[in-house]
Design brief:
single chain; alpha+beta; Nucleoside Triphosphate Pyrophosphohydrolase; 6-stranded mixed sheet; two-stranded antiparallel ribbon; 6 helices; globular
Amino acid sequence: MVVVRPAGGGIEVLVLRRGPRSRFGAGFVVFPGGSIDPTDDDLAERWFGTTEERARAAAVRELIEEATIVVTDGEVRAVRAGEDPIAAVDAAPPAVEALPEIARWVTPDVLAKRFDARFFGVGAPAGLEARPDGVEIDRAWWARPADVLEEHELWESLMWPTYNTLKELVGCDSVDEVLELRMEQVPPPGMAAR
């Protein structure tokens, strides 16, 4: 989930650092998200009316789990103390249109570890704070996309999809511009796309 908020005439994006015990990408800076779980079919049916939206449901669930942020119909906010955030989404699920797919990244065939990652965008209010789960994620912060690119290196702490998405976000001046993005997959140098 690419979560963006307005900041001083531009935007900030929520980024997370995967903890040292993470099964995948330990130490890398990422957007909130992860694998589709078996429960995501049920969530997709409840929230979006079809199991075909399992990736979108997984993005909403992972945002809750990794950054303690809940997305409901018309609201993006921190999970409240003692709240069941899944029940909050059940009570007022977001519209599919509120979480547009801005990118899809499929690992080239030449790599042994493959993934098919869909990136959804959502706008957040200024001042929203995120709390990392302390297990998979050990840090969560908001930053201008250009600052993330300046502070982190491709292949050292940024994966190819995150790097390219951040490059696209640099050209966006507003949350609306981010939500209108429809990125083309660009394979890493020397690798063919699937």
